[in-house]
Amino acid sequence: MAKKLEFEIGDYVVYPTHGVGRVMGIEQQTISEMDVELIVIKFEKDRMTLRVPVAKAQNSGLRRLSSRKLMDTALTTLRGRSRVKRTMWSRRAQEYEAKINSGDPVSIAEVVRDLHRGEDQPDQSYSERQMYQAALDRLARELAALEKIDEVAAAAKLEKLLSAA
């Protein structure tokens, strides 16, 4: 029954609701008199450690970093036209939140693109800015890990793409 783990110590992984983390190890713990094998993931930015049961890793959405091809699709999405629906902000905010928490870089790029404001556009509300920043940070962290650059450089690259669109 020993299933081969997809992740190795030191690998960068993406947990949908927390973004990019690093596998620190695999440990055994006894929880309610059951032995459970756990993947230990450290999220540097949030100063958080998450333990995901190996058996639940697949269902939780834990995955490797995106492929270069998928990230390129996300970057292309950033350059596309904004598709903001004319619905109430509360409904759009729920949809954006779901896209961010999906962990899918293309969905996150859609949120960044739709909430981006150029110099000549009207100001955003506080909650729009918060959501935009959350999506931008999430996408920048994955891009940074994929390209082995720091998050500031990754965020600058994303903002440059947005400005050029």
Number of β-strand runs:
5
Tell me what portion of residues adopts beta-strand conformation: 15-25%
The helix count comes to 6
- In sequence order, what are the helices and strands, one letter per element? EEEEHEHHHHH
N-to-C terminal Cα separation, in Å?
A: 51 Å
- Please give the radius of gyration in angstroms: 18 Å
Q: Give the strand line-up of the largest sheet.
A: 4-3-2-1-5
Largest sheet: 5 strands, antiparallel
Helix content class: 40-55%
Low-confidence stretches: none
Overall pLDDT level: 88
Overall shape: it is elongated
Structural class: alpha+beta
What does this structure look like?
With 165 residues, the chain is of the alpha+beta class. Helices cover 47% and strands 21% of the residues. The chain contains 6 helices and 5 strands, in the order ββββαβααααα. A 5-stranded antiparallel sheet has the order 4-3-2-1-5. Strand 3 (34-43) and strand 4 form a beta hairpin. The model has no long low-confidence stretch (mean pLDDT 88).
Index terms:
165 residues; alpha+beta; five-stranded antiparallel β-sheet; 6 helices; 47% helix; 21% strand; elongated
Please sum up the structure shown.
This protein is of the alpha+beta class and 165 residues long. The protein has six helices and five strands; from the N terminus they run ββββαβααααα. The protein is elongated.
